[in-house]
């Protein structure tokens, strides 16, 4: 099997560790809440893009009488041990869903934007709508990888801004990495009602004076440094033909800026919920 089509054990462990750190950041910023809409007694939940499986496992433990179906395109990251009411399966979210109409009470979709094709978004939203029961809810969580500064000190000359600009543009022909900013309108177009959208600054370091937000930033700092490297290495060097030396110079500069409390950097984090109209 070619190296590009598999994950060696050490690499798998590293990715799982990174995804778990990312989950812990989300758990901190969401104050431990898994579900934001008023879903009280779900019987069946769909988790789109399960990653490390951490969210799905916690949902299965929180709702032991519910059936949790978690899907992801990568079979390599499937958790080795899961609760009895959780089933993880390989599925490509760029393909139409194979689930029955009105099968789920709740659909959870998190960090799928980097993997969803540009032309797939309308169909993806419609699929989420179709598989929900009347009165069911969709919850979407996405990072907009356009780094911002809480005090406006980041300029286009900074490595973090260059990273963001390049990352958003490198996939423009295939991906819509600006989709997180339009989730509300896309959900409404698909037929969802009571749609609510909230942007939460996801700090890249502990710059905040607020103790809670400072803890979130400190927890996210190492995760952010790993993320900007892992997500950009292939597209920057292969699609843009940036040399490895140029790439790592950019990453080193961006990482040093992540450590700079004076820059107050953050990624916009969007949480959007919507309801399928009741029958």
TrEMBL record:
A Pfam family recorded for this sequence: Methyltransf_23
Leader peptide range in chain numbering: none
GO molecular function: methyltransferase activity
PANTHER family tied to this protein: 2-METHOXY-6-POLYPRENYL-1,4-BENZOQUINOL METHYLASE, MITOCHONDRIAL, METHYLTRANSFERASE
Descriptive protein name: Methyltransferase domain-containing protein
Species whose genome carries this gene: Orbilia oligospora
């Amino acid at each position: 099997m070619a190296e590009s089509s598999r994950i060696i054990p050490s690499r798998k462990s590293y990715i799982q560790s990174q995804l778990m750190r990312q989950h812990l950041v989300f758990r901190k910023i969401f104050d431990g809440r898994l579900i934001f809409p008023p879903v009280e007694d779900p019987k069946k939940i769909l988790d789109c893009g399960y990653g490390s499986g951490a969210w799905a496992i916690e949902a299965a433990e929180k709702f032991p009488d519910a059936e949790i179906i978690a899907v992801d395109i990568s079979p390599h990251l499937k958790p080795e041990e899961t609760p009895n009411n959780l089933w993880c399966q390989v599925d490509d979210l760029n393909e139409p869903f194979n689930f029955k109409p009105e099968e789920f009470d709740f659909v959870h979709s998190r960090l799928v934007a980097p993997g969803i094709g540009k032309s797939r978004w309308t169909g993806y939203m419609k699929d989420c709508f179709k598989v929900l029961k009347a009165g069911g809810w969709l919850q979407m969580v996405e990072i907009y990888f356009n780094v911002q500064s809480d005090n406006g000190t980041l300029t286009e000359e900074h490595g973090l801004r260059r990273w963001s600009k390049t990352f958003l543009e490198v996939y423009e022909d295939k991906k819509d990495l600006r989709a997180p900013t339009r989730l509300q309108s896309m959900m409404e177009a698909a037929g969802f009602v009571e749609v609510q959208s909230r942007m939460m600054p996801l700090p890249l370091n502990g710059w905040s004076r607020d103790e809670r937000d400072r803890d979130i930033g400190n927890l996210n700092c190492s995760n952010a440094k790993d993320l900007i490297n892992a997500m950009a290495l292939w597209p920057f060097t292969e699609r843009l033909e940036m040399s490895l030396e140029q790439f790592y110079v950019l990453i080193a500069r961006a990482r040093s800026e992540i450590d700079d409390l004076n820059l107050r950097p953050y990624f916009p984090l969007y949480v959007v919920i919507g309801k399928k109209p009741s029958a």
